[in-house]
Amino acid sequence: MHVFQLVGSGLGTRKIAHALNLSVKTIETYRENIKGKLGLRSGAELTERATGWVMENLLPQHRNEISVIKKKKVVPFRAA
Question: Hey, what CATH topology would domain 2-57 get?
Answer without folding.
Answer: Arc Repressor Mutant, subunit A (1.10.10)
